[in-house]
Request: fold
Amino acid sequence: EAQVTQNPRYLITVTGKKLTVTCSQNMNHEYMSWYRQDPGLGLRQIYYSMNVEVTDKGDVPEGYKVSRKEKRNFPLILESPSPNQTSLYFCASSPLFRGLTGELFFGEGSRLTVL
Amino acid sequence: EDQVTQSPEALRLQEGESSSLNCSYTVSGLRGLFWYRQDPGKGPEFLFTLYSAGEEKEKERLKATLTKKESFLHITAPKPEDSATYLCAVPDTGRRALTFGSGTRLQVQP
Reply:
C-alpha cells in the first residue's frame, strides 16, 4: 500500500530535550516536505527536499533541522524543543514537486506537545 | 505574498441540504488551485486541481469551480460521511510549497 508513515504519532516532551520525528514514504517520490498545522494559522511549510541531499527552508524553519540521506526518509529534528513548537506535524511527498497539480501525499500526522 | 481565505470557518448542514464553501485567493499569477479533504486525526487528502477560470471538477457529491478571484466547493445532497475539514491551497513554486487556507469544518447531521 502506497503510504507516508510518520512516527511517533503522539509525543509529550519537555523543553530542551532533543527529539526526532521520522517520516518514510514507499512511493519512490523525489519531493518531501514537512508542514505544521496550528489552529487559525493553517498548514505552514517548515522544510522541503527536492531529492537526496537537497533540502531547503520553508516558511517557518526556525528551531528545526532536516536531513535527506535516503530517498525514502526525511526526518524532522527538534534539537531544543520549546513550547511554541507544540503543534500537529505532517510529512508529505510527491513525485518531484507537482506545483501544477498540487497533489501531495500526506502522512497521518504527529501531535507534539512541549511542556 | 499569496493569500488564501476560506469561509465559512464552520458549517453545519442537515443530510441532503446542499451548500457551498468559499475559497478566495490573492496570488501574483495563478498556477492552479487545489482542494483537499482532512478527516479528524488524519492528513489532508487531495481532491481536485483547477487551473483556469470557468473550469469545473466533480467527484461524487462534490463539485469545485473556479473564477478569477475565488473557488467554490459545492456539496450536493451531503451525507454524514462528507463531514470533514475542507482545505484549499495555491502553489508557491518559489518555495516549492502549497499555501493553504485555514479550512472550512463541515458537519453533516443525519
